[in-house]
Write a structure and sequence with these properties.
about 525 residues, alpha/beta, 8-stranded mixed beta sheet, 5-stranded parallel beta sheet, 20 strands, about 30% helix, globular, binds 3-acetylpyridine adenine dinucleotide
């Protein structure tokens, strides 16, 4: 049975004080569980605590990228723009922490290095880098999907004499690039958001692009007070709408296929979506991620826009992606392509000739040294598994998670792992997570996990473990649905392709948020089917 024991002996230990950890703590407290959060940073916010690069925003609309568990909270909080900036999202996370008095149970500046399951006592012991220990019946890893930054090991990387930055671990005091020659390596979402702003400041900006990306204009603007009033008058309706959508975002997808549309209909629909802006561009037709020919019509439309915006035809061609649109995650930008019309911006295509070395003076490609004063690594993350595997997690019989996942992550519902009793992951690999609006997904996970703890307490149990058979079936189902879409067909971080040596497995669950929630609910209703209890 769950017991309230002294200081470091808890019912639940949570790792991470991002949106998942904060809500987990709040909900557990409300249920009478003793819980503590261990957080590596000095503040709350997770992703939004670390990613402070210029231009960082969420590309899900602010009125949907927020908690819905507390109506007073969603009524009182005022977002200022259609897409909230990182400082505003961080302020929101801080507001939530204060409003629900969460900080007193969060230990900041505490990085967890090891987590070990004690089979006899049915408990987890977590060790921190500082050598402290915390024990708890349950361990919840709320460590985020994009929280372990990836900096490629270029030859000579440490020889550079100037300043280096990673977008995912940006200095809190900000960086002034005025008068500096700056290199940005990478052209994913973080680069696409930061490049226009760095270009405005720097004396010269050189962008090193391995793969061009598709990006759709954000058309960001102050939020219309009328729209906010209408949403707040019936917030549950907007939330319920989001939950019916495969990506957890309330929007109007077109239910017709591109394959059956005339050239005029294609153009009209793409122009409309381009003018609306944002990620919902991919909802222009219902077969864009299922059929290559359909997808090619959307891809060609965006290439046409790039050629219209970018004045130098050679640069425009370098910026034109040729792969499936939406296979790598679509980006959302403010003035990205137009930035290449600036006289102080150079694009270096490294697709055929990778970065040879970082030198004391800059970046060397194809025998040419590009001298710079600062290098910005916008090179992404060891996504989905990185933060989990950084911790030495040991389950039954000393089984190491790093060994179990050598060929790629395996989980039951992205929530639990066979061989690791009483360990839960929020938005773990095998859950819809990064393919959806993360906030509702996080809330669903937190509620499912905490309900499970409540059920165990009611039934006088303190041990639960996913069965190997249930895990195998879920992993098989994941692979099967991943194979039905074009999303698994390119070298993206979804399949671990950005980190050398990482196993190629499509990590998030692509069957859609509603189908996933239905399966989770069914598992719970059937007495935690697929789990061994006790
Ligand atoms: O990282 P990325 P990110 N040599 O992995 C390149 C979320 N997010 O931080 O494509 C040269 O997308 C790499 O090249 P390639 C969002 O889910 C959301 O930008 O692998 N280049 C790529 O261009 C997003 O998808 C928001 O060929 C190398 C870039 O670095 C996710 O975070 C904002 C290289 C990495 O792009 C990650 O985005 C920001 C090498 N050795 C992020 N290694 C919003 O909500 C890597 N690259 C708006």
């Amino acid at each position: 049975m769950l017991q309230a024991d002294p200081a470091t002996d808890l019912d639940v230990v949570i790792v991470g004080a991002g949106f998942a950890g904060l809500y987990m703590l709040h909900r557990l407290r409300g249920m009478g569980f003793r819980a503590t959060v261990l957080e590596a940073g000095s503040g709350v916010g997770g992703t939004w605590y670390w990613n402070r690069y210029p231009g960082a925003r969420c590309d899900i609309e602010s009125i949907q990228y927020s908690y819905q568990f507390d109506d007073a909270l969603q009524q009182e909080w005022e977002w200022s723009e259609r897409y909230a900036t990182q400082p505003e999202i961080l302020a929101y996370a801080e507001h939530v922490a204060d409003r629900f008095d969460l900080r007193r149970d969060i230990r900041f500046d505490t990085r967890v290095s090891k987590a070990t399951y004690d089979e006899a006592g049915h408990r987890w012991t977590l060790e921190t880098e500082a050598g402290d220990r915390v024990t708890a019946t349950f361990c919840v890893m709320a460590t985020g999907c994009l929280s372990s930054s990836n900096t490629p090991d270029f030859p000579g990387r440490d020889s550079f004499r100037g300043a280096t930055y990673h977008t995912g671990n940006w200095p809190h005091e900000g960086v002034d690039f005025t008068g500096k020659r700056v290199a940005v390596i990478g052209t994913g979402s973080s680069a696409i958001q930061s490049i226009p702003l760095i270009a405005e400041q720097a004396a010269h900006l050189t962008v090193f692009q391995r793969t061009p990306n598709y990006t759709i204009p954000a058309h960001n603007a102050p939020l219309d007070p009328e729209r906010v009033r209408a949403v707040k008058a019936d917030y549950p309706a907007l939330r319920a709408w989001g939950k019916r959508m495969v990506n957890g975002i309330a929007f109007h997808p077109n239910v017709h296929p591109a394959k059956e549309a005339s050239p005029e209909e294609l153009k009209r629909e793409y122009e409309k979506r381009w003018a609306e802006g944002g990620l919902t561009f991919m909802g222009a037709f219902n077969d864009l991620m299922l059929d290559e020919a359909a997808n090619a019509t959307a891809a060609e439309f965006v290439r046409g826009k790039i050629r219209e915006i970018v004045k130098d035809p050679e640069t425009a061609e370098k910026l034109c992606p040729t792969n499936v649109i939406g296979c790598k995650r679509l980006c959302v930008d403010t003035g990205y392509y137009a930035t290449y019309n600036r006289p102080n911006v150079t694009l270096v295509d490294i697709s055929g000739s990778p970065i040879e070395a970082i030198t004391p003076n800059g970046v060397k490609v194809g025998g040419i040294e590009y001298a710079v004063d600062a290098i910005v690594y916008a090179t992404g993350f060891d996504a989905m598994t990185g933060a989990l595997l950084k911790v030495d997690i040991r389950g039954k019989g000393g089984l190491r998670l790093r060994d179990k996942w050598k060929e790629g992550p395996r989980s039951y519902l992205g929530l639990a792992i066979a061989g690791f009793p009483n360990l839960f992951t929020v938005t773990g690999p095998g859950s819809p997570s990064v393919l959806t609006n993360m906030l509702p997904t996080i809330e669903q996970h937190v509620e499912w996990i905490t309900d499970c703890f409540g059920w165990l307490r009611e039934h006088g149990q303190d041990r639960i473990e996913a069965s190997a058979a249930a895990e195998d079936a879920w992993v098989g189902h994941n692979a099967e649905v991943a194979g039905t879409t074009l999303r698994s067909t390119c070298s993206s971080w979804y399949v671990g392709a950005n980190v050398p040596g990482k196993p190629r497995v499509f990590m998030p669950y692509i069957g859609g948020f509603p189908a996933y929630v239905a399966r989770c609910d069914e598992v719970a209703a059937n007495g935690y089917e697929g789990f061994a209890v006790g």
